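Subject: for your reference before the review

Hello V.,

The reviewers asked for a structural picture of the protein, and I figured it would be easier to keep everything in one thread rather than splitting it across files. Below is the amino acid sequence we used in the manuscript, unchanged from the supplementary table.
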Amino acid sequence: MDLFDKFNSVLAMKARLPFEDGNPFTLCMDEVISQTEAIINGRRTILAGTNNYLGLTFHPDCIAAAKAALDSDGTGTTGSRVLNGTYSGHRTLEKTLAEFYGTEHAMVFSTGYQANLGMISTLCGSDDFILIDADSHASIYDGCKMGNATVIRFKHNDAADLDKRLKRIDPKAGRLVVIEGLYSMLGDKAPVKELVAVAKAHGAAVLVDEAHSMGVFGATGRGVVQEEGIEDQVDFIVGTFSKSVGTIGGFCVSNHPKFEVLRYVCRPYLFTASLPPSVVASATAAIRIMGSSADIKDKLWDNARQLHQGLSDLGFELGAPVSPISAVIVRDQAGAMHFWSQLLKAGVYVNLAFPPATPAGVYLLRCSLSAAHTAEQIEIMLEKFAEVGAALGILSETHLSGADARTSSGQPGQGVAAATA
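And here is what came back from the structure prediction:
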């Protein structure tokens, strides 16, 4: 038997998909022009699916810090954190993170995926229980698989179901409840206050993944936990540098008095090459900007409200209330593929998401906005959504008149270049 035979169903599905203008899962940006634009398939395209929430990828302070570190420390560390891979920059980044979150400890990983993998697999052993939201990110599921604790799923964002499942566990056992602040596919915020209250009532530890909520929620951008005023009740916050921070890497912050022992026992920390100095320097600069520039977050939310309201007015079915993630739900796979392809041809790139990344039967055109988007660019996105949605019959009849009005309104940006030059 060929080892690749197990993937025949995936190959068959790929063969059935109507790739009209490139494969959404292997798409290449020929040239990145800015935080919000790129050349794709020879066309100037608005980027509305990059998770670059604060638009810091081209911030001059971040670029200058990365260049300086490249000149002074070279291109990479060529080792793990516990051998030759810890430079002074890594220590500075961890100190900056701890100050940003107001915690005693911070530990940097090479990716956000590895941060979840490391924390979840290391914290819980064979006698322990991990309770995870059913819609958890793949890194949370994989962290559970890597360890040998008993894993229990509870219904998405359902505090009553979490309570029911915690009641069945021996209170003497170790228990870790893992949730996310903002879920990345539908863009729905977790009821963290209710979930954390249930976990604490049962004496369970809590880990919150703020990958998509860092820089987005909370007075100083520390996430949903800060916004809800429950930071003192959460044991571990995991995050990533590949969204609002604008580079790559992951981390965990905590006030647990024994936290530092993880540097000796956490395999995804021990056995991975550390982040290169230029990445560490740009991440440090970005976090300092995030903590001192509330106006960037305000602009992001202005953009989020404009897009969400516009899509709602057009009549699209959306996955959640307003957030920087607006997910348009399409009920069939082929329709979603055609929609994605036609949007790309029209100069708008969004994410196409299928199960198992989404709930069963839900196909998404996922938009993630940036503070760097202009109001004119968002109007162009809405115009193109209206045109394509009407052409493909995705928009309901009751809303077609509104869509027609937008597509013929002569709004700014009849073409991408008109609004972005």
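For the response letter, the relevant points are probably these. The chain has 16 helices and 14 strands. The chain has a mean pLDDT of 92.

Happy to draft the paragraph if you're swamped.

O.
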